[in-house]
Design a protein that fits this description.
heterodimer; A: alpha+beta; D-Maltodextrin-Binding Protein, domain 2; seven-stranded mixed sheet; six-stranded mixed sheet; B: mainly alpha; MetI-like fold; 13 helices
Chain lengths: 534, 306
């Protein structure tokens, strides 16, 4: 059995080599070798590695190694240089001038310069291209090529999330030549400036990358300058959780991500494996009411629902301590997170019962509440199967709610299209979702009617919240943003628009000999510093 | 004989056409539209309209169908809504893996199934027969998924003999094939046993025995050959069943394959990919059933005489 008893290495978010790890293992990185990384590719078998187009986090985990960004997100919400050496923001917050490195080449040998930045951003901004990264650009107007290596981005209004968004892989820099050559198929021929470049791509099965030998423009967060240590990096799409654990344990893969809680617990104690964990900067998975539909348009009904839930117990039961419960829609490491919300609300069955009585929902002989002969039901819809064990959570909630006479109906809609359609027309009471994002501006994207799409699960339309979120995104001074986001988070919880459930911890389990895999500030894996003990 | 083949081929063409049309209608009838599901939850209406126009899903149903058929006749299956890749190339890249998996598993299922069935009939009523029947019942009631995980834990994690995932080498195919083959063998074993046990009671066997034929010859030549006919009929069904089970095995063993591709494409309403996959599956299913039909002529003289 591989379940060895001694606990050796636990979590680490930053590369730790070169710093004298105890034991007999080598601590000086060794170049060469291949790392096979088994990743949770979900149901998708079609790899579409166009960072501007894809919203699928698992594919961005691959793309992060192929595409670089202008800036990198550092700890403490600071930004460091990457493809841009430095930048200036005009006092009115509408002009960003980036001074680019002049020694960067794309994998196809073409030069990275201000024209490439312009080409990339204009491509995204053109609505006809229908690219998902469009929302990341905010009030973007244009990019001006000041000189070969100076690019100026003009906005129509101040937009403080811009730097954070530019550090995301969704605004990664693609080779204009490749985009021209491949057109809409460019997602099968990704060409960036990153530490690894594409060798081959087998749809649904694997993406094989080779080290980029020219790479010497690593992000400020990187542990070393120069090309990656690994000769080859192979991403294998292994959608089954049990299989990912098996490939890692059998040695067929050196690392695997997002194992189930039942697999993570023994790994934490094993000395044959290591576990790297880091919070994904995220709009936490939260339940949203269809606040346009009775009775959930009434805040008292939403509160009664919230008071009937014991989220602590449910999250602990389903994730066995591998995920924490959430207190705010924002994950704790996002800029502006309101820590004072922690512990500020808890289950209260008596209050819930009182509120429901007040609203005229009286308890019947069958144990459910009813009003005018109609049972108090909540139709929850989901379109992603049991992703992240969300339906297991809902099943626990269903039992908790029954204690207060509320009948939760869980409907798993088989197709994404069908699910989005129902959200769009409002044919549901409750839905849940998350959205990876580096900035509290994600709340504006979700909770303000003018910005979000019709298929957004939040139907919140609260002028006070809209004002707070608009103010928050247009402050030029970061510190000035804080009070707006604090109030916005409070308001969302107090008025029970959203019920945050858990904080997603992105985790990678590796064989003991695999060193230096890092998880970046956003929660995406970085392999530039990874190496394998010989 | 040739007339029969031509007749069957024409009928097959009709079946394939029907399948393609049915899939087209069902997918369009499903709620939601492709542009919405591809653009994602955050997409603006503007983005969705632009995408619909590019994909051609904003056109009328009849026009879309007409365009699809016109393309099909010219060998153009369209492009994936998701990746923009030509469907023919995409499906053709996934198809060999599934075909291989299904055919090899069928072979394993047939060999194992008929073998167990014959043995079972040979020792009918004795403890060995009961052991085989119990084993077969176990295979028949095991979920593919569960068996797969079990095989993986024993042969890859514990013993370290075989790789868990991938679809390049023979070693990588052993576990998935074993998984499908074991499950597929169960109905065949039962069919074979029943056919042989029933056959042994037929009057012609009494005649053969009266004529002084060796019991082994009666059993392994005459009874076996007759018992094979329902088994061969079942082959067509078996291939269909294995094709649908391939979805589970492909996901579990992280293999490439048309099963996974189809299910995913349905979820995304990637109509051209679903159509292309169904086309490949339908054509192979029809061809295999045609082969099964034709093989009767070899095995069953009554059919040849018709």
């Amino acid at each position: 059995m591989l379940l060895a008893a001694l606990a050796v290495l636990a979590s680490c978010g930053r590369p730790d080599h070169g710093s004298g790890t105890p034991g007999d293992s080598n601590t000086v990185p060794v170049a060469g070798g291949e790392l096979v990384f088994a990743f949770d590719g979900g149901a998708l078998t079609q790899f579409d590695l166009d960072p501007h187009k894809s919203t699928f986090a698992p594919h961005h985990r691959i793309m992060r190694s192929i595409f670089d960004s202008l800036v990198v997100l550092l700890p403490n919400h600071q930004f460091g240089p990457w493809l841009a050496k430095s930048w200036e923001i005009s006092p009115d917050g509408r002009t960003y001038t980036f001074h680019l490195r002049n020694d960067v080449k794309f994998h196809d040998g073409t030069r990275f310069d201000a024209e490439a930045v312009q080409f990339n951003l204009d491509r995204i901004a053109n609505p006809a291209n229908a690219l998902a990264a469009l929302t990341d650009l905010g009030p973007y107007v244009s990019t001006t090529v000041v000189d070969d290596f100076t690019a100026r981005i003009e906005l129509s209004a101040p937009f403080s999330p811009l730097l954070a968004n530019l550090s995301k892989s969704t605004l990664g820099m693609m080779s204009p030549a490749a985009i021209r050559q491949w057109g809409i198929e460019v997602g099968l021929h990704p060409v960036g400036t990153g530490p690894f470049r594409l060798r081959s791509l087998q749809p649904g099965s694997e993406v094989a990358l080779d080290r980029n030998p020219d790479y010497h423009w690593a992000a400020a967060s990187s542990a070393h300058e120069g090309p990656a240590w690994l000769e080859h990096l192979t991403f294998k799409d292994v959608p089954e959780e049990a299989t990912r654990a098996a490939v890692l344990r059998s040695g067929q893969a050196g690392a695997a991500d997002l194992l189930g809680p039942q697999d993570i617990l023994p790994l934490r104690k094993s000395r044959d494996f290591k576990l790297i964990e880091r919070e994904l900067l995220n709009h936490n998975y939260s339940l949203y009411f269809n606040a346009l539909r009775a009775p959930w348009s009434d805040p008292r009904a939403r509160e009664a629902f919230k008071d009937s839930l014991d989220i602590d117990v449910a999250v602990r039961t389903v994730y066995l301590g591998t995920f924490e419960r959430a207190w705010s829609p924002l994950s704790p490491s996002i800029f502006g997170y309101d820590k004072s919300l922690e512990g500020a609300w808890k289950p209260d069955h008596e209050r819930a019962a009182r509120l429901l009585d007040e609203l005229g929902w009286t308890l019947g002989a069958d144990g459910y509440r009813a009003k005018d002969g109609k049972r108090l039901t909540v139709v929850f819809i989901d379109g992603q199967g049991n992703r992240e064990k969300r339906l297991d959570l809902m099943t626990l909630f269903r039992n908790q709610l029954r204690g207060n006479g509320i009948d939760l109906i869980i409907e798993s809609v088989p197709t994404m299209g069908g699910y989005l359609q129902r959200i769009k027309v409002g044919n549901y009471d409750l839905a849940g979702g998350s959205l990876f994002a580096p900035d509290p501006d994600v709340l504006r994207r979700v909770d303000t009617p003018a910005v979000r799409s019709l298929a957004a699960i939040s139907k919140v339309n609260d002028p006070e919240l809209t004002r707070l979120l608009e103010e928050g995104s247009s402050q030029v001074d970061p510190q000035a943003r804080l009070p707006f986001y604090r109030d916005a988070q409070r308001l969302i919880i107090d008025r029970s628009y959203a019920i945050p459930v858990y904080v997603l911890i992105y985790s990678i389990a590796t064989a003991a000999k695999v060193e230096g895999i890092a998880i970046d500030g956003h929660g995406f894996p970085v392999f530039n510093d990874a190496w394998i003990q010989p | 004989m040739i007339a029969r083949v031509i007749q069957r081929l024409l009928a097959s063409l009709l079946v394939v056409f029907g399948a393609v049309t049915a899939v087209f209608l069902i997918l369009n009838w499903l709620p939601g539209n492709a542009a919405e599901s591809i653009a994602g939850e955050e997409a603006s209406e503007q983005t969705i309209v632009a995408l619909s126009a590019r994909l051609g899903t904003d056109r009328g149903l009849w026009e879309q169908y007409h365009r699809y058929l016109a393309g099909l006749v010219h060998g153009d299956l369209g492009r994936s809504y998701v990746t923009g890749e030509p469907v023919l190339r995409h499906v053709a890249s996934q198809w060999p893996a599934t075909l291989q998996l299904t055919l090899v598993s069928s072979l394993v299922a047939v060999t194992l199934g008929t073998g167990l069935g014959v043995l079972s009939a040979r020792f009918a009523g004795r403890w060995f027969d009961q052991l085989i029947q119990a084993t077969v019942l176990l295979f028949a009631s095991m979920p593919t998924f569960w068996l797969g995980i079990l095989l993986m834990l024993v042969f890859s994690v514990q013993l370290g003999w075989l790789p868990v995932i991938g679809n390049g080498s023979v070693a990588q195919a052993i576990l998935p094939v074993a998984c499908l083959g074991l499950i597929g063998s169960a109905p065949l074993a039962r069919l074979m046993r029943e056919g042989m046990v029933d056959g042994l009671n037929d009057p012609y066997v009494t005649t053969l025995r009266a004529k002084g034929l060796l019991p082994a010859r009666v059993f392994y030549v005459h009874v076996l050959r007759n018992a094979l006919i329902p088994v061969i009929t079942y082959l067509g069904v078996l291939v269909g069943e294995l094709l649908s089970n391939a979805v589970v095995v492909e996901t579990l063993f992280a293999r490439q394959g048309i099963g996974r591709l189809t299910v995913e494409a349905i979820g995304q309403k990637d109509l051209p990919v679903v159509q292309g996959s169904i086309l490949f599956i339908a054509v192979s299913f029809v061809l295999i059933n045609l082969l099964v039909d034709l093989s009767y002529t070899v095995i069953d003289p009554r059919v040849r005489a018709q």
